[in-house]
């Protein structure tokens, strides 16, 4: 597969873009990456490839665009089947999709509510995030990864979001490891993987980005 | 739920989400037992089968529960290969998943919000709904086929299909007008074709019962919003 066949429109701090990068790395797929200037001015290719949402990530394979990170990870798994990211049985696949959907619906927004608010609203947002992580701990059970022994689909969907936790902890004044030790252990386990470690941004840099966003939103 | 084999569906008579699952099972000719849940008085069974959300629909197959309608559709499509819902090609599948999510989050959801809100919020919601319909209309026109998936009903048609029989009721309850057939000829034609299918039209809830139910729900949601505002 020539490098030019696969192009990712990217933004460095986006956990959704990281999902795609990790999936491609796990599959050993070579690709090109183009950083988008989200605040300065989105590229024509981005606007043309994702006219409805105008967001990254966008994956272009042989020039054909795909949007929505979970959708893209699905596509990557179906196009390059080895090693498989989704489990083999239909039921286990449904469970994996359930957890991916749960994470998509709840996790990033709950975290956002922590750094975007103060006082009572922030306390409620913290409580919600912890509850979400406890549900995920339930989904993980005693397994090393969400899919079992191997790093897979749900792990890829979840792990990039954890780079934002340092910022949530800082602004929300709490500690994820204290509240959800199992989740913290799973996080460390995933960070030990090359595809993850090489892809994810430094949480300190994410914190600086979130601080900048807070100023932009006029939050003290 | 100890017994193995067999398909059960926990639903609620007016739930568009449960209807999606019924359509998929019927199109594939899968026999199932339907269990009506009172979602305002949830059974211990439902809480056990769907501990995270406690919502319908839940499909139980061989004793194992699956929840979230779009996820259930994918499961059904993988287990019962006849009358496929998703296309085979990975790129086309990605497109189908994209449009299914759009149909759920932008088309159906915006109509609901437009129905349940008032004043400025309602105006904004109607505008969002119309914009979503415009995108959907554009894509239907671009494909130029009878249904979203082609000449037969597919994944996106089933997810979006709730508007075929509930949109008019929501418009009446909410005193809104979104589907102007002269503005959305492709969607209007698609609705006609969709409802023309005997398995789709069969057993849909009665219009007057839906009107009564959504009127009540809409008022409940409005009064809840008011009490939040004044609190």
CATH architecture of the largest domain in chain B: Up-down Bundle
CATH structural architecture of the largest domain in chain A? Up-down Bundle
Q: What oligomeric state do these chains adopt?
A: heterodimer
Would you list the SSEs of chain B in sequence order as H and E? EHEHEEHHHHHHHH
Mean pLDDT figure of chain B: 95
Task: Give the domain tally of chain B.
Answer: 2
- The helicity of chain A comes to 55-70%
Number of helices of chain A: 11
CATH structural fold name of the largest domain in chain B: Glutathione S-transferase Yfyf (Class Pi), Chain A, domain 2
Strand content of chain A: 5-15%
Number of strands of chain B: 4
Radius of gyration of chain A: 17 Å
Strand order of the largest sheet of chain B: 2-1-3-4
Low-confidence stretches of chain A: none
Estimated radius of gyration of chain B:
18 Å
Structural write-up:
The complex is a heterodimer of chains A (220) and B (231). Chain A has 220 residues and is α+β, with helices and mostly antiparallel strands. Chain A has helices at 15-27, 44-49, 69-79, 90-116, 119-140, 153-158, 165-172, 176-179, 181-191, 194-199, 203-216; strands at residues 6-10, 32-35, 58-61, 64-67. A 4-stranded mixed β-sheet of chain A has the order 2-1-3-4, with helices on one face. In chain A, a hairpin with a 2-residue loop joins β3 and β4. In chain A, α7 crosses α11. Chain A starts with 5 loop residues before the first strand and ends with a helix. The relative contact order of chain A is 0.13. The model of chain A has no long low-confidence stretch (mean pLDDT 95). By secondary structure, chain B is of the alpha+beta class. Chain B has 10 helices and 4 strands; from the N terminus they run βαβαββαααααααα. Chain B is globular, with a radius of gyration of 18 Å. In chain B, β3 (58-61) and β4 form a beta hairpin. In chain B, strands 2-1-3-4 form a 4-stranded mixed β-sheet, with helices on one face. Chain B has 2 domains: 7-79, Glutaredoxin (3-Layer(aba) Sandwich); 90-216, Glutathione S-transferase Yfyf (Class Pi), Chain A, domain 2 (Up-down Bundle), CATH 1.20.1050. The chains are: A alpha+beta (220), B alpha+beta (231). Chain A binds chain B through residues 52, 61, 64, 66-68, 71-72, 74-75, 78-79, 90-91, 93-95, 97-98, 101-102, 135, and chain B through 52, 61-62, 64, 66-68, 70-72, 74-75, 78-79, 90-91, 93-95, 97-98, 101-102, 135.
